[in-house]
Design brief:
Elements lengths: L5 H7 L9 E8 L4 E6 L16 E7 L13 E8 L3 H27 L9 H22 L8 H7 L6 E3 L4 E3 L10 H11 L3 E10 L5 E7 L9 E10 L6 H8 L10 E13 L1
Antiparallel strand pairs: 1-2, 1-4, 3-4, 5-6, 7-8, 7-10, 9-10
């Protein structure tokens, strides 16, 4: 078969492919001479198995057999395979390795560049932020509402402020400096029923002017650092001298100064409410 249909036989044995091809030679010889040979004659000299892409495989085994009538005695069966060098296979392998390295690099970069957490911005979080903002706006508007000739609950909270910072202790908003000092009234009730009951973290702070150029922000209620998805709502409250029983005492406690001694105007306090999901 090797002598009559050499290429067909190589293909059927899987020795002839797109990237590598082989030559096959089957030789039967005894100790003194070649008895039978089939396939291509192997070169006596040349580049056979000399480079790293090529190798020479020889399987040799002495066998005991009953020789054909035209052969006398038994000999050796030698199979010789020669791998031909093919640069295209090497290039395809290199391209595959480089492509795999690029893909792995892209995946590593993407994972390191994007950290996914429960607070990562998304469409769902944007919807939650919008709900929190609407809730906060409704709360400060309700607290700042006043009936005729009466101060709003938000203004009353500022006027009654002792200047301390308060934290939630699971039952009350308690002063950091005076354990017996707690917040009471409509503001505390609204925050507790609306935000604390829903597990919404919140801080409240007052920002006011010290002079024509500088402002100061003082914490009123503090429950921790807000997340990146926190929302802030604010409401400005105008204070007048007539709103305060003792303006000097009020300034000493809160550090909110009288911005105009010639008029009834005292100061403007910007109430900021920060909210975030716990």
């Amino acid at each position: 078969m090797l002598n009559n249909s050499y290429d067909t036989t190589l293909s059927s044995l899987g020795l002839k492919g797109e990237f590598n091809s082989y030559d096959l030679n089957v030789t039967i010889e005894n100790s003194s001479a070649t008895m039978y040979m089939a396939g291509n004659t192997l070169p006596s000299v040349g580049n056979i198995g000399q480079t790293k892409e090529l190798f020479f495989l020889k399987i040799q085994k002495t066998i005991m057999c009953k020789p054909p009538q035209y052969l006398s005695g038994c000999g050796k069966l030698a199979l010789k395979f020669v791998f031909h060098n093919n640069d295209s296979a090497q290039l395809h392998t290199l391209e595959a390795i480089m492509a795999a390295m690029v893909m792995i690099g892209v995946l590593i970069f993407a994972v390191q560049a994007t950290t996914i957490t429960p607070l990562t911005s998304s469409t769902a979080n944007a919807h939650i932020e919008s709900q929190l903002y609407t809730l906060g706006q409704d709360m400060v508007m309700a607290l700042d509402h006043s009936q005729y000739d009466q101060d709003s609950q938000l203004k009353q909270e500022i006027i009654g402020w002792s200047g301390d910072e308060y934290v939630w202790n699971a039952t009350h908003y308690k002063s950091r400096t005076n354990g017996s000092d707690t917040i009471s009234g409509p503001v505390k009730e609204l925050l507790q029923q609306t935000l604390v009951a829903k597990g919404i973290g919140h801080n409240m702070e007052f920002t006011f002017r010290l002079d024509s150029e500088n402002t100061l922000t003082s914490p009123y209620i503090y429950n921790g650092d807000p997340s990146d998805n926190a929302v802030i709502v604010s409401r400005k409250v105008v204070l007048s001298n007539s709103d305060l029983t003792n303006p000097s005492s009020f300034e000493n406690k809160t550090s909110i100064p009288d911005m105009d001694n010639t008029t009834d105007f005292y100061n403007i306090v910007d109430v900021k409410l920060t909210m975030w999901r716990m």
